[in-house]
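Ticket closed. Logging final result for IclR family transcriptional regulator.
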Amino acid sequence: MELKKPSSKLNRSLERGMEILRCFKPGMNLLGNSEIAERTGLAPSTVSRLTQTLVLSGFLEHDKQKSAYRLAPTVLSLGHAYKTSSQELRAIEPLMRKASEKLKLNVGLAVADRLEMVYLESIRYTKKTALRAVAAGQRVPIERTSLGRAWIAKLPPKNRLELLSQLQASGIKNWSQIEKEIKNAITSMTERGYCIATWLPEISAISTFVEFSNGKYASLNFSTPAESDLSNYLEDYVQALFELKDKIESEIIKINHS
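Final structure:
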């Protein structure tokens, strides 16, 4: 994705460096300069200079045999620092875990990052508690998931139109159908406070939003474990979703007034 025209207040080199780091996602562990240039729209010479800088700064590692780069452990430490320093996430996680165990559903909390949703916390339900995985940092499509559609519905109308235009311009397959589903989700959020979506064939989810401090918010969802027979009964969990939303918002209020 080509970079937007920067504000005069931004440091151009720093912004470009962050764009390079954004290129690395699950399944894209090794990227060469030419691949990075293609993904960012930056000149190859600029990419070469910035990747060298990121290696020296400890954010990228260079694989000499493959002439490519991978993220360095420093990036992981930043994510860990964010999670452990957030009072809100520390208070929310036990509530999400308890709901997951009680309802036998996955419970997720996510925010938007451009055209994707990023999990702040994700509790995956399994009968074998010891094997439960927490996938904070995982990304999912904003346009296909209930998390993303709940987020879109919460946006101010102007911002929502801008985002929908960006999604359309990104070349998403079956956009007309997806746009229709997004509009139905917006109507559902407006009238009922939640929306439902089936992103993958075996996983359905129901989402609402949670108010954070300073006008910020996140999307909260329940989703069915893979190969579950709960997808046709998700609306039975609406009340439980709203109860969890209320508990989370109450904890956030306590934290901000403590």
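The chain has two domains: 12-74, 86-256. No further action required.
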